[in-house]
Amino acid sequence: MTAIDLDARFDPRELRNALGRFATGIAVVAAHDAEGPMGVTVNSFSSVSLDPPLVLFSMARGLLSLPRFEKVEAYAVNILLEGQEAISNSFSRPGADKFAGVDWVKGVTGAPKLTPTLATFECVPYAHYDGGDHVIFVGRVVHLHVEDEGSPLLYFRGSYRLLATEKG
Ligand SMILES: Cc1cc2nc3c(=O)[nH]c(=O)nc-3n(C[C@H](O)[C@H](O)[C@H](O)COP(=O)(O)O)c2cc1C
Question: Do the domain assignments include residue 166?
């Protein structure tokens, strides 16, 4: 059997462009420690398991807040609503005072729940895995907050998008 050549025939920009063809929602992962609240916009959120209830997201190793996130006892994954582009933008600015002007409350676990959201998953850390230049966080969901109404903020090919008509 011929060994598969692992040398990439594409550069990181091409890979990023290709990955951008996968449409996602947007979440703000938020936690609280002695220094105060911290939060990061992610579109790497995904469901993992129903029993036990597990979700995941990945964080770049260069994130200023990564060492703090790796130590917290709980974090909240806040799923953004359409119209919350400004929140997504402010939570993607490295090192900024991301919570300025943002409405939030402490959830059951103490992790910041943004208000409003489409849904919020409060989690305790289940595992941290090596994900190359990212760390993969797997969280065990311990509390759910779900809105019956509302549409998600979407992300596709590097731009925010809105949900179109529902397929019947
Ligand atoms: C739509 C969108 C999705 C993002 N998804 C991720 C992600 O999944 N993982 C990640 O590490 N950074 C992601 N980022 C970038 C981070 O939000 C940004 O680097 C981070 O807030 C900087 O945090 P820091 O202040 O801890 O350095 C995303 C940014 C945007 C605008």
Answer: no
Q: How far is the CA of 1 from the centre of ligand 1 (A)?
A: 40
Q: Is residue 167 part of a domain?
A: no
* Domain count along the chain: 1
Quote the tokens at residue 163: 């949900």
As a whole number of angstroms, the distance between CA 45 and CA 24 comes to 8
How far, in Å, is the centroid of ligand 1 from the Cα of 92? 5
Residue 127 placed within a domain = yes
Output the DSSP codes for 64-106: TTHHHHTT-S-EEEEEPBTT-HHHHHHTTSTTS-TTTT--EEE
**Tell me, what amino acid is at 138?**
V
Closest residue by Cα to atom 31, ligand 1, is 92
Q: 29 lies in which domain range? A: 25-156
Query: Is residue 114 exposed (0-12), middle (13-18) or buried (19+ Cβ within 10 Å)?
Result: buried
CATH classification of the domain holding 83:
2.30.110.10
Closest residue (by CA) to atom 7 of ligand 1? 42
50-104 pLDDT, tens digit per residue, is 999 999 999 999 999 999 999 999 999 999 999 999 999 999 999 879 999 999 9
